Amino acid sequence: MRAGNFRHCASGLGGAAKIVDTGTLPKLHVLTLTPFYPSDGDEASGCFVAETLRQIEAQGAASSVMAVDSIYHASRRSSQQSPADWMRYPQLPGNFGLSTAGQFLGTVLLSRVQQLHRHSPVTVIHAHAALPCGHAAAFLSRRIGIPFVVTVHGLDVFNRCFQNGIAARWRRKSSLRVYAGAHKVICISEKVRQLLTDGMAEAGEIVNAEVVYNGTDPSVFAPGSSQDELPTILIVGNLLTGKGHELVLRAFARLKDSHPALQCQIIGEGADRDRFAAMARDLGISGRVHFLGRRSRSEVAEAMRNCTVFVLPSRYEGLGCVYLEAMACGKPAIACHGQGIDEIIHHGKNGWLIPIDGLEELVQGLQVLLGNAELRAQIGKAARQTILDNLTLSHQAGKLMRIYEDAAR
């Protein structure tokens, strides 16, 4: 590449990159390492990374993406909408091998990153999650001399994976080293940042951390002109116990007689789907609970526009992009106190908060919201304004650009 003639502005190598003649090279070239990214046939997984990267490119940075997965998972192919170099890395079986997987991944990536860096110098590596991508980024940073930042996406900051024992201690130790070596650790909420800084202080380490909330696209996730005739509760999330689907099903069963037209739509897939479906049958609500499986981004946006109330009483959530998307659609979103989203949602003003496992509070909240269209509209309008004020993809990308520029100095 001749300096001054082209801009490397898209993901990957070997045909995945797009070169646009702009007359000047971009100031920033960000290499993203991520296990979360859309792939052919699954545009929803990792969309929160891909959609932000498109905004970063729109703000003038070049972007390359190396999306990764372990050899134990099926190979994935790049999607046309979100091009990336997909590659697999060796890992010892299960979570036991997570503490060393980053070293294997870094070794796999080294020659590719060196080639990319020679072709179009990389300004900063942005790793998503400490293990394995942050660990690999730290390895690459030492070998090539590129600064790296890492984003923490959840509350399991030190990768305990809900376990104890020697493997969990190894994962924690590896995570500590990654965070200590990063130019910046990006946290998706203040709750995540507090868990990180407390854990680092306990280990006698210092960390440079900053909160950058996720954003959403208010042109895609926007209010609709009309609403379906049937009142509908919408859940979007992986079908796992911690997301709170069971609580919603129990609440729905309590409301089925007083709201005979009420429907429940559930978007997502997961290991607990059959158990939730059996629970719906046992509660006598299976005819009104619809498991829709995986849906495209446009289909999710349409479902949010048409629902009456969005509910996800998750017990373990760093922030939760789906709440922001529902809010952008002008819908009341019900979430739980004590999660990252309670930094965004103010109860009764721009959303609704209940205690974790608060069945009575959920039933009461649904009764209030389903029965008061004026209150729903008021909360929905405030919710969308909250997004427009500070939580769009453009806001998020601007804050990340500032972090990248600081790393480049």
Structural class: alpha/beta
Oligomer: single chain
Order of strands side by side in the largest beta sheet? 5-4-3-6-7-8-9
How do the helices and strands follow one another from N- to C-terminus? EEEHEEHEHEHEHEEHEHEHEHEEHHH
Biggest sheet descriptor: 7 strands, parallel
Number of helices: 12
Distance from first to last alpha carbon: 23 Å
**Mean pLDDT, as a whole number?**
92
Query: Rg, please?
Result: 22 Å
Uncertain runs: 1-23
Spatial shape: globular
- Beta-strand content bin: 15-25%
Helix percent band: 25-40%
Number of strands: 15
Structure description:
With 409 residues, the chain is α/β, with parallel strands linked by helices. The strands form 3 sheets. It has a 7-stranded parallel beta sheet with strand order 5-4-3-6-7-8-9, with helices on both faces. α6 packs across α10. α9 links the parallel β13 and β14. The N terminus is likely disordered.
List keywords for this structure.
globular; 16% strand; 6-stranded parallel sheet; single chain; 409 residues
Please give the structural blueprint.
Elements: E1 7-8, E2 19-20, E3 29-34, H1 47-58, E4 62-70, E5 85-89, H2 98-119, E6 124-128, H3 130-144, E7 148-152, H4 166-181, E8 184-187, H5 190-202, E9 209-211, E10 232-236, H6 245-255, E11 263-267, H7 273-282, E12 289-293, H8 297-306, E13 309-311, H9 321-328, E14 333-336, E15 352-354, H10 359-370, H11 373-390, H12 393-408
Parallel strand pairs: 3-4, 3-6, 4-5, 6-7, 7-8, 8-9, 10-11, 10-13, 11-12, 13-14, 14-15
Antiparallel strand pairs: 1-2
